[in-house]
Amino acid sequence: MKKFLKIRYLIPAAAVLFILIWLCSLARCEFLTYRHGGEFYGFDEINSAYEYKILSYNDDFARIYCVNFNRTNGTVYNYVREGGQWRFNE
Question: Which residues, listed in sequence order, are joined to residue 56 by a DSSP beta bridge?
């Protein structure tokens, strides 16, 4: 009976932990986009996208997820800062 009680509480706890981690990653992505999104607005890859989100950002590197206008697919672009300017990294 004790083993059943452990499993009974373990599964919902794992589900709640998964949801919390997922929500924190979404909040981080939204915060990075809100804070640094304007730095990438002039690039052709960003201007041709329906929507974009910054996945990761530091002083020298950024990963940006762009969704096309048809909303059928998305692409991750990498940018590198060289000489104070962001450059598309293929």
Answer: 63
25, burial (CB in 10 Å: exposed 0-12, middle 13-18, buried 19+): exposed
Q: What is the reported pTM?
A: 0.82
Fill in the amino acid letter for 85. Q
3-state secondary structure of 48: coil
Give the tens place of pLDDT for each residue, 50-70. 899 999 999 999 999 999 888
Going by C-beta distance under 8 Å and a sequence separation of 6 or more, which residues neighbour residue 60?
A: 80, 81
Do 81 and 87 touch, CB atoms closer than 8 A?
yes
Q: Which two tokens stand for residue 35?
A: 């804070």
Specify which residues 68 forms β-bridges with: none
